[in-house]
């Protein structure tokens, strides 16, 4: 009788202890990140662009025209360098993250 009672209690406990748990609903979420900017005023791109533009502008013309071409090349190069650096800094990268609700 003791064996039967032990088996019955063991059977009841095994079904009572193992209760079905709710499954967490998981899904993939796309997250967009922007890299931190080291040069927010874009000084590096502007200076490098102005220097290269000035060098290229100096190759054109002669006399006073050479001076104007140098200044014009420096201004145009500075603007171009600023825009190029802004474009490179504003890049966003995508990451897929697994999210589970509980």
Radius of gyration using CA atoms only: 35 Å
Biggest sheet, spatial arrangement of strands: 1-2
Mean pLDDT comes to 85
Structural class by sheet pairing and helices:
alpha+beta
Distance between the termini: 45 Å
Q: Fraction of residues in helices?
A: 55-70%
Features:
102 residues; alpha+beta; 57% helix; two-stranded antiparallel ribbon; 3 helices
What does this structure look like?
With 102 residues, this protein is α+β, with helices and mostly antiparallel strands. It has three helices and two strands. It has a two-stranded antiparallel ribbon. Helix 2 runs antiparallel to helix 3 (64-89). The longest helix has 26 residues, at 64-89. The radius of gyration is 35 Å and the shape is rod-shaped.
